[in-house]
Design goal:
- The chain is α+β, with helices and mostly antiparallel strands.
- The chain has one domain.
- It is built from two helices and five strands.
- The protein has a five-stranded antiparallel sheet, covered by helices on one side.
- Helix 1 runs antiparallel to helix 2.
- The longest helix is centred in the N-terminal third of the chain and has 54 residues.
- It is elongated and about 90 Å long.
């Protein structure tokens, strides 16, 4: 009888030794995926806030002393102020651009190329100045068409990529979390909505 109890205890110990690592891997996997989903949701919310701001500022122009249009600066400020569980230092880049019909920078068909040239501004996070700074690109916003019911009314896009770092390191160092949103510009008054009629 005692011999049987000892062998059963030994079997339980062996089973626990086999099952515990798998159970821990499952628990840590659930935690890691939950944190990834939290960060993906945060990036999406930040991009949504930025696009809403940019879409309302078709006629805001570019301040005389600035190198970037007001709508792009206000968009990245919205990202900075939106708040997220991810530190802003984990942001790889932010693009604010005139979107084509697919929601990408003109004439691109994706945002895998993160170089901005015309009608696109790329920002990166600067730890030294504790804010987003322009990295490349230009945009003459006076060319924006924001006329209501005009089939050529333009859209603004905001794209962002941030680095999610795995807590446990089980899945590597980290993964990029991208988000992108396009919105049509809010209409300007009929007298100033066309390209060249506003700042």
């Amino acid at each position: 009888m005692a011999r049987r109890q000892r062998s059963e205890r030994g079997a339980v110990a062996v089973e626990a030794a086999l099952v515990t690592p798998l159970l821990m891997l499952l628990v840590f996997g659930i935690i890691e995926m939950s944190l990834l989903m939290r960060d993906a949701s945060g990036v999406t919310n930040q991009v949504r806030a930025a696009a809403r701001i940019a879409a309302t500022e078709a006629g805001a122009g570019t301040p005389v002393s600035a190198t970037t249009p007001t709508l792009a600066d206000d968009a990245v400020n919205a990202i900075q102020n939106a708040g997220s569980s991810m530190p802003l230092s984990s942001v790889n880049w932010v693009l604010v651009y005139q979107a084509n019909q697919y929601g990408y920078p003109l004439p691109a068909t994706n945002t895998s190329s993160v170089t901005c040239t015309t009608n696109c501004i790329k920002y990166v996070w600067s730890a030294a100045s504790n804010k987003f700074i322009k990295s490349s690109g230009s945009w003459a916003t006076s060319t924006i068409n924001a006329c209501v019911n005009d089939p050529n009314r333009q859209s603004v896009g905001v794209a962002m990529s941030a680095k999610h770092t795995w807590v446990t390191g089980l899945f590597g160092a980290g993964v990029d979390v991208p988000a992108r949103l396009m919105m049509q510009f809010e209409p300007l008054p009929a007298t100033t909505c066309a390209s060249g009629n506003h700042p």
